[in-house]
Amino acid sequence: MKIGFTAFPRTVQGTGASRRLRGGGKVPAIVYGAGKAAQSGELDHEALYRHLKMEAFHASILDMTYEGAQEQVLLRDVQMHPFRPLVLHVDFQRVDKNKKIHMKVPLHFVNADICPGVKTGGGVVNHIMNDIEIQCLPDDLPEFIEVNLDKLELGHSIHVNEMPMPKGVEIVSKLKKDNPAVVTVQIPKAIVIEEEVAAPVTEIIGEVPAEGEEGAEGAEGAEAKAEAAEETEEKKPPAKGGRG
């Protein structure tokens, strides 16, 4: 995708001048690199803000028109206002077609819905990385790197060195050495917690007497007491009779 924009010369410098530029709907900018002197410029804020919403604007070779001449540049830095939708400053780097560039490009994950870990395993895809740093010649710079998840199983991951790269594109050496995980499929944490809470609990219940047992024991005890009372009564001496 070819993306172009126009930058205008900026003759005044300083904090006050930059503030006045922003008040007039302009954004201060600087362009450097390719063995040339740095140049100060300004861009239309509305047009730039619209471009910044495009993913490709952040990871593509851009055609910049400056004083009637066209140069190829890369967006290197954007300074935004802390809470207002306002661009404070932008940096662009000129491109030398014969020198490799280091660039972060976005990752596009495809076939997440049909991968075994999701379709049959009930897992969810977790994006550990959303972009990756590469190096290549400017003409080989891709807008994004595609990551195919169609064979990803539950509990498995895809690592940096397992991703196929477009022709002429290399992953930077530090990432190749570390080989971190890029994406994984795992069971959602909420489900794991729910299963732990729902684990079976063994309940010990005391033995309950069979129906009628307690009553029978009570009756037998009462009967024994009655017999003992009768025997005691029989053993008592007869009472003496009174005077007639």
Low-confidence stretches: 204-224
Alpha-carbon distance between the termini?
A: 142 Å
- How much helicity do the residues have? 10-25%
CATH class descriptor name of the largest domain: Mainly Beta
What is the SS-derived class? alpha+beta
What's the architecture of the largest domain, going by CATH? Beta Complex
Structurally, the number of domains stands at 2
What's the shape? elongated
Percentage of β-strand residues: 25-35%
Per DSSP, the total helix count is: 6
State the CATH superfamily name of the largest domain.
Ribosomal protein L25, C-terminal domain
Features:
six-stranded mixed beta barrel; 244 residues; Ribosomal Protein L25, Chain P; elongated; 13 strands; single chain; 2 domains; alpha+beta; four-stranded mixed sheet; RNA Polymerase Alpha Subunit, Chain A, domain 2
